Model the fold of this input.
Amino acid sequence: MIVVSQIQPWMTFDYLNRNFNLSPDYLKKILLLSDDMYPNITIRRAATLQGEVTMSFVERVKEAIKAYPSVTSPSP
Amino acid sequence: MEYILSTFLTFLLLYKYVGLFLISFLAALLLPLPSSSILAAAGAFAAQGYFSISYVLIAAFMGNILGDTTGYFLAQKIGTTSLQKIGFRKILTSSLYTKLVLYMKKFSFSLIFFSRFLTGVGPLVNILSGSTGISKQQFFVIAIIGEIAYVLLYGMTGYFLGSEWENNIGFLFKATLVIIALGATISTIQYGFFKRMRSNQEPKES
Done:
């Protein structure tokens, strides 16, 4: 299992959803993603489509995952 | 390097078992792709519960064996006669090539088996096996045994390392180091085999 701080731009939303046990549409709704390819799209690609800088988008993804009720402090 | 590895990891996450199969196939055929690292990464994703380890091993095995046999049959079909016609006559009639053919025939088992673990060498051995007339039954049986061992070794290395990875790309570097160490060990074993067989044969020849 990876922890929130290890999230990288090359990861897909499908991988993140499975890794953090998120509900399938949680990140799509909170990050306002509209791409039909979701969740099989990388963070980098989603950032480009949203017109955002990749690393700041990665930070938004991290914050969204931390805010998810079942994701608590990083496990060792 | 990091960008290349992350591109392959994305490809693996997007296309899963089909992606692993394709990378394994192309690397076994001829392309210089980091298939061992990607197999280890797939094993790590399996340790995280994202992939099934059984499917990872099957996809990698199928890709590798298909790549091996395609390389072998292409070399067998093209053959040395055709290569001589397109400008390789000097190389193919040289004493070095003759020695190489003899070496291939004498040590075919250890060469084919151990080269499965060295992704850069495997495709060349497949081509040489096809062009130097090693029988397809012999090649296929040794390649299957070798690929089973290779896939289990690298896939399970990733599986066991993956449960404790600290950093995704860092994990791949760590896995690559383990793979290089395994490759060096295997090359040493291969060299030992070669020396032992050679010393066994020398008294008979004299």
